[in-house]
Amino acid sequence: MDSAFLTGGTGFVGASLARTLLAKGLKVKALARRGSDRRNLSGLDVEVVEGGLHDRETIENAVSGCRYVFHVAADYRIWVPNPDEMYRANVEGTERILRSAAKAGVERIVHCSSVAAVKVSDDRAPADETREYASASDVVGHYKKSKYLSDVLARKLATSEGLPVVVVNPAAPVGPRDVKPTPTGKIVVDFMNGRMPSYIDTGMNIVHVDDVAEGHWLAATKGRIGERYILGGENLTLKHILDLLAEVTGLPAPRLRTPYAVAYAFGALETALARWRGTEPRAPLDAIKMAKHYMWFSSDKAKRELGYRSRPAMDALKDAADWFAANGYAKALRAA
To answer: Is 256 helix (H, G, I), strand (E, B) or coil?
Structure first.
């Protein structure tokens, strides 16, 4: 039986990927930090390897004998009090995983990057894999910058050093088992709890988390070494996303649009107060800066080369809303 080693298996995308790999008949080992929340792996036939991204010996032992390695773990926060921690996890941690896997003779390594590493278009046209930032200084926010640096690193290790790495760039995953929740999932939770009285003029690419997981498997079995593949779904405005949430939940969608300048001022104030209070801002300034651009992307390359497919965004939003309601994150759904 082929085996796979997975980082980030207790998280949102990783938990879905663990289920996909088990369904493909693989033996799965998942890295998990000591004391981490492991609800997402409950009931699964997964061997948990206790350790972190910086535990070299643990990782080298875990990847030994594996045919595939999927590096999904990442520090996914739009605002972080200590950015150095994020770079250690997302950049240094990535290099340690990829090099350890290659040293063990793994056949294929899939690095889960993000569309954060792809430069968006100024004219709202969906961006593809050819859109590159000139340098890290052009990237807004520490999360996006760390994902950009790890994306560049992964492709460089493949092209310059021959590591068998394929990169995938998920858009904004939505669906069940978003335990934290992620920043995208928080939009759904806030909407369901009536904490979104207005919206700003921006756009996102919404994709079901299970489609992202399947895309990882397709990248491992069909992807070209050194290439990256955007795993997205539907390009929607935030207003359209909220309207779809209204449809699946039966709750009213906000009608008030907040001007960008007002949102920027609020984000700046919130972020400054958060640093002073030592708490997380409700609207991080980096998130407001990102929202100035429509984050729309094309998955045509993944469709063409991998056979990747995605379901409608409404299905993803409904599955997310159902899960959040069933697990106590948000109010019970009304009859839609």
So the answer is: strand
pLDDT attached to residue 78: 67
Question: pLDDT by residue (tens digit) across 170-191?
Answer: 999 999 999 999 989 999 999 9
C-alpha dist (Å) from residue 111 to 140, 170, 331 = 22, 11, 36
Does residue 225 sit within a domain? yes
Contact between residue 201 and residue 294 where contact means Cβ atoms under 8 Å apart: no
Do the beta carbons of residue 311 and residue 220 sit within 8 Å?
Answer: no
3-state secondary structure of 206: strand
- Residues pairing with 288 in the sheet: none
Tell me the per-residue pLDDT of 115-128, one tens digit each, with 9 for 90 and over: 999 999 888 899 99
Residue 288 located in a structural domain:
no
Q: What is the CATH number of the domain that holds 134?
A: 3.40.50.720
The DSSP result for 271-307, as a single string, is HHHHHHHTS--SS-HHHHHHTTSB--B--HHHHHHH-
One-letter amino acid at 257 equals: R
Number of domain units in the chain: 1
The residues with which 230 forms a beta bridge, in sequence order, are: 169
What are the residues facing 65 on neighbouring strands? none
Q: How far apart are CA 179 and CA 171, in angstroms?
A: 18
Instruction: Return d(Cα 56, Cα 103) in angstroms, integer.
Output: 12
Q: How crowded is residue 84: how many other Cβ atoms within 10 Å of its Cβ?
A: 9
Q: Is residue 246 part of a domain?
A: no
Domain that holds residue 107: 3-239+293-325
How many whole angstroms separate alpha carbon 132 and alpha carbon 127?
10
Q: Where are the beta strands (DSSP E) in 33-171?
A: 46-50, 68-71, 108-112, 165-170
Q: What is the pTM of this model?
A: 0.92
Counting every residue, how long is the chain? 336
272: in domain:
no
